[in-house]
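In the current project phase, we have settled on a layout for protein records. A sample record is reproduced below.
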Amino acid sequence: MAQHRAHVIGGVSADQFFPDLLSRLQALDTLADPPLTKTLAIARLKRVLPDPIKHIELRDLLDTEVQRLRTYLAGRPQMAPGTDGQAVQDAHDEIRQRCDTLLHLLAHGVYLDRDRQHTALWTWVIEQLMRARPQPDGQFHQFWVSLHHYPALLALQAASLSAVAAQRDDVLLRLLREPTWRDRGSSEWEVPALDALHTYRVLDHDVINSFPRWSGTKWLYPRSRLLKDELRKVFLPLLGDEESYQRLFHRTEYRVALAQKRFQASYRSAPGEFIGDGQWRREGLIWDADFRAHADLEVWGWTTDETGTFNQTLTELAAELQQSRRYG
């Protein structure tokens, strides 16, 4: 002991001492910066997700990423750096990159949350990102300040894709309906995420089509194309191949459009590439048929006695989406 300058710790057993020492070391590790890499963050999520005792650690893991985005959004300017497509594309790309770890955490978390223990946490993350949008003051570009909701939209889209991939429409509807936000500059009351994060509100059709990344191509549904491109790298490792990702994205787009119709969003149901050429058969939209074959009426708020109303809503939605093909 003298040689190693050791000290005797009295009054405590090894069974008490070592767990306490371990918890203190873990606390120090949690407090340490720099932030976890994406790979380590995903590994930590997978470790704590199934453990009901570690729900606080899971929340802290997600909250760390939320707070980084909140700090970034608070310092983001209200005026666009220019009108050329490259400058605005770079701005979109920067936001996407800053969201990367959080998007991976949400995608894995929602997909692996088999018993739906943490659905309230996923909805909380989306609401926190919605409320991180600063209120504009003075001069501003509308499309530019609307991008303050881009992290929330990306997060909602990632979580929604995972919910549909796991065949949990109940989780999808909670993600779309429970997080709320109010624009203090308007007369609107609190509106749910399916309305506040409607792609028409957050993304500008013409601005996205001006991006150099498209090499001059003008998309009919550029909002849909952008979101699908931005989340591909998140979901290919989970799904395994491009065809599965395309199918999942279209199935999810249809369900989001139906939720906007069913629960009366301010804008018409968002069109997307899921209604493009090749998505229709003689009997109608293939995603309408897919939904009818697998839908749980009660999850969507229809009783078994309301099949007539259910059929009417889906028929009206298909007609609206067919008309949307003319406008994009």
